[in-house]
Structure formats: structure tokens, C-alpha cells
Write a structure and sequence with these properties.
Elements (H helix, E strand, L loop, with lengths): L1 E6 L5 H12 L3 E3 H10 L3 H10 L7 H12 L8 E4 L5 H8 L6 E6 L5 H6 L1 E3 L6 E3 H4 L19 H15 L1 H8 L3 E5 L4 H12 L1
The structure holds BIS(adenosine)-5'-pentaphosphate (AP5) and magnesium ion.
Magnesium ion binds next to helix 1.
Amino acid sequence: MNIILLGAPGAGKGTQAAYLVQKYGFPHISTGDIFRSNIKQRTEIGVLAKSFIDKGQLVPDEVTCKIVELRLAEDDCKNGFLLDGFPRTVNQAEALSKIADIDYVIDIEIPFARLLHRLTGRRVCPKCNASYHVDFLNGNNVCECGAELIHRDDDTEETVSKRINVYTNQTQPLIDYYKQRGKLISVNGDQSVEEVFAEIVAKLG
Ligand code: AP5
Ligand code: MG
């Protein structure tokens, strides 16, 4: 199965991806994680990506599409993959359609009012990319894998509101794009993590 996870910043894409990978075993390809790993290693792509991510803007399509094209050509993607955060523009969706057939696009729906709290309270693992929320950490700031959790630089109130605007203007049109192509599965993201996951699994059939 080739699957795309669509949804606003903080909708729960990364959280659901971890569950889906465990159940179906396909590789999880998050363009955000790829950029953050490049930023950490101070690569040329990382330096470029940081200048956009810190402002809540999208990294230019040509850079992002090339990264995904190379990643999807790797052996582990031959029997299916899970894309998280890509495509994010119609232009990216068109580029993707030339290199892969997509089976399902899972759109995690969530009222924007929920996003600020989720993102400003999010803590992530710099080692395995797991997502947590301070509401459930009970003051414990360590990942299951043992690494110290961090607060993402783009999870400030100011940058989150910019990211939501970018999502509305550039990414939301993909909902209709994939609906028209008969690929869209919508799930209610405003319920517990386990309930969202159960809805996805039921709808994937
Ligand atoms: P990216 O890393 O993809 O960020 P995003 O899309 O803004 O999404 P997030 O990772 O913030 O949210 P999520 O949906 O994964 O939520 P999560 O599961 O963590 O991209 C970052 C940046 O990179 C972009 O702004 C852009 O600059 C660049 N970029 C990336 N891809 C690009 C592309 N294709 N083109 C151009 N630029 C690109 O959950 C959030 C929080 O909520 C957590 O604390 C979690 O514990 C909690 N939570 C999750 N589910 C629930 C639930 N059901 N109930 C309660 N809490 C929940
Ligand atoms: Mg994410």
C-alpha cells in the first residue's frame, strides 16, 4: 500500500504514522523529519531548509520533490510506503503522480482551535522522532528510547499561526485534489490517539 498522511500542523500525522508503521511495517517518510535531520547535520539542504522552516514557510518544491524522489527509489519502498507531510502543494502532488501510484490519502481532520495547544506543548525525540505532549509526560522529559526530549524551534505561538496559514492556502486544496481522484479517506483527528488509529484501520479495510 502507498499511503499519504495529510493534515494541518499538529493534526497527529507523526503520531498516527508510528502506529501505522508498527501495524503494516512500511517505511515512514516524513519530509519534516528529513529536513530536521539535515539541519542537525548542517548539510547544504539543512541550511536552506532551516531558513524556511524557522519562518513557518514551505521549503521550495524543487528541493522537496527531489528528496522524496530519491527516497522513494530506495529498496524498502518497493512494497509500500507511508508519506507524512508530503505532498503539501498541488505542484508536489503532480510531481509525485509521475513517480508513484498512491492508493489512499488519509486526511486527519481537526479544528484549528486545537492546534496551538497541541504544538506549543509538544515535545519530540531528536533521536527517534517520537512525539509527546507535556500534558501526558508528568514532568518526565525522556523518550521511550532514552533520549532527552526537545521543543521544536517552529512550535512557538508565532510560527504555528504562520504554519496554519500556509496549510490553509497551499495544502488544503489537496483535499479536493485527492477527493476528485477517489483516493481520500477522512478521519476525525479530534479524538484519542487510539480512536483515530482505529478509525484509520477500519477505513483502510
Ligand atoms: P512537519 O514536520 O511535517 O510539520 P507539520 O506538518 O507542521 O506537522 P507536525 O509535525 O507539526 O504535526 P503532526 O501532524 O505530525 O502532529 P504530531 O503527531 O506530532 O514539517 C515541518 C516544516 O518542514 C514545515 O513547516 C515546512 O517548512 C517543512 N516541510 C515539511 N514537509 C514539506 C513539504 N512537503 N514541502 C515543503 N516544506 C516542507 O502531534 C502533535 C501534538 O499533538 C503532539 O504533542 C502529540 O502528542 C499530540 N497529539 C497527536 N494526536 C493527538 C490526539 N489524538 N489527541 C491529543 N493529542 C494528540
Ligand atoms: Mg509531524
